[in-house]
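pasting for ref. prot 1 ->
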Amino acid sequence: MNVNLVMPFLRSLENTFKMLLALDLSFHKPIYGQTVLEQADCFGVIDIEGDLEGMYIIKFPEAVASALLEQMTGGMKVEFGGEDFEDAVNEMVSMVS
């Protein structure tokens, strides 16, 4: 994995969440490969097309996703696993794509 391709994306995530949700993010070491989805309660996908092709997968533990969505919706609870939850996670991921 080329860190020079990943870091601008991570900085974009950091800036977007700080500006729109007033949240400071911390990152774990980026991982790649098939196991990434096995370890996620929920996730969003950003496809990359052009000279390079691939995808970024942003994964969240349930508690983190729920807290982010509550912050996004002004305190409204969104039920984990429901259609509204999935839509809200996709919207959150779209903010940085």
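and prot 2 ->
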Amino acid sequence: MHPRISVNNICFMLEPLATQLGYWPRLGVQRVSVLGPQLDGEGKAQVEAALTAGGLQLETVVHPFSSAHALDSSTQVLAEARERLAARIRSAQEVDRK
């Protein structure tokens, strides 16, 4: 597969994370993308292990910014959404540094 192609796990989002991670080596990818919630809890360690084992690069993290509230929501709702996004960025940076 061409090195510029990145496979996004959103293509397999109905399958368990472990199954999704198993597709990466079979597809022969070098760059991958994950859904932000996949970096929560044990998922983060699973993604890190798959990246390390395959010598892969984390290309992007898809973050559902605010699906439950309109962007013109209250200041508090927007502050909470910003904090979730900031936490997701920190988590992605931690995975990418390994």
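The longest helix spans residues 75-96.
The first strand starts at residue 6 and ends at 8.
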